[in-house]
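Q: For a teaching session next week I want to show students how multiple molecules come together into a single three-dimensional assembly. I've collected the sequence lines for a complex. Could you give me the predicted structure tokens for the whole thing so I can convert them for display?
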Amino acid sequence: MKTLRLILGDQLNYNHSWFARNDDNITYVLMEIRQETDYAQHHAQKVIGIFAAMYNFAQYLRKRGHKVMHLLINDPDNTQSLIKNLDQIIKQENFTRFEYLLPDEYRLDEQLKAYCGKLLIASEAFDTEHFLSSRYELKEHFGESKHYLMESFYRMMRRKHGVMMDATQPEGGKWNFDSENRKALGKSTSVPDPLLFDHDFTEIWNEIQRSGAKCLGNPDAEHFSWPVTRRESLQLLRYFTDHLLPLFGTYQDAMSTQHWSLFHSRISFAMNIKMISPAEVIDAVVAEWRKRSEEISIAQTEGFVRQILGWREFMRGVYWANMPQFSQMNYFRHENKLPSWFWNAETKMNCLHHAIKQSLEHAYAHHIQRLMITGNFALLAGIHPDETDAWYLGIYIDAFEWVEITNTRGMSQFADGGIVATKPYTSSANYINNMSNYCKNCAYNHKEKVGADACPFNSLYWDFHARHREVLEKNPRIGMVYKNYDRMSPELKAQVHERAAWCIDNLESL
Ligand code: FAD
Ligand code: SF4
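A: Of course. Below is the structure for the complete assembly, covering every listed component.
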């Protein structure tokens, strides 16, 4: 059989069993295509990073004696469509069998299934051998229930994979050490600089521009800082376990105008394109904790393990259990448009200015910036989840739909009505002020609810809850909000709603 094997740009698993033996009858194909550069408007660093990582992966396979075709974006033979390119290659080279790795995105999964359904040659799909749970494991775990509790899934995963377990019980006697984590950054806390690589990818960026693909953000092509090989991914992981893990959990939710990644690992890009696996990331972190248990507390380690063994696998399971319906959900029937400053950071709101500016600069913001600054604002301002999704899918280097949409439409916008989260993640300025230094230099006053210089988060927060009282008041986790709202005088309530209405009518000028 003369076999063609497709590898997508986020399937760069160096340890996949496909590559364990060489076979002259097998050709691997990787493609840079406009279909993929254009399905969302991506950050320039995301496209450059994926193209560079694909190039390195193709070289790696060639060095190991595999036959590889790598279609570049401006190759004259490149039709820019996955299916047309496959058709062309299969015909020209007389392949008699087609194989692919199961895509993580619904749209590509459907496209390849439909393609194989019509193919006249034999075809087969293989697992990417990356995740710790199967596509439908979450669905099986929760059965008919439509609301999934991450904690329950996480505990099942800890038991199943024997991670930080003492026989059947969690090490340290608790499953969750959150209460010891999540502090604001102290004045004297010393934050290590992030590990940045320094690649000159000017040529790749020039080719992307020549192709006509439109990107957003700073390309940083001359000093590209993200890992683009397995070796670099391992170096980034090592840097995390050596320098950042000891305070990861403590400052997991902290935000600062001085530091853009704090104690976060920045490993999501390397993991999402599969240069490094979740199992080896977890193993390295747990091993480091065992080695330096005097210095690294269980709270830091468990906090990190939960993100990967819990949240990451959980989101993937939610995606496959609920697509394609998930992408249409709009529980609050929000209709507003994102203000244009989401693309240039030109807003007087200091927290949003910083979170967006660093996203444009580095294609990265950490979880709390995504959830409690940009996401919180979009939710309170009643932005349509399609708008919010498109922005998140484009701007972050780690954004792939299976993990982007579940976090954005689900966790952050509650547009799924509570499949992912038990309540909407919202806050007024109080939380932002407690967790960051953003409010100190803001044009708005974080203490005020009404008046021209009152922080927009405050009136929008109360207005959002009042607007959606009918559906939210029943939620036992939100009841207190309405008790506090009802304590406000009718005059104050009216002023708050007036201020919120003004903010929503004037999103562009906030
Ligand atoms: P760390 O804080 O160091 O955490 C370690 C790892 O845990 C991450 O690399 C990631 O793989 C995993 N992780 C942590 N939280 C989550 C989560 N909620 N869901 C899934 N995995 C998690 N993550 C993406 O990988 N791609 C996205 O497109 C994406 N979009 C998001 C959109 C919104 C609105 C929100 C609130 C979160 C989003 N996340 C996304 C989750 C999380 O913010 C990122 O995984 C994290 O910021 C990546 O940075 P890091 O590697 O430094 O993470
Ligand atoms: Fe953000 Fe409001 Fe604080 Fe300004 S005052 S930084 S807008 S929370």
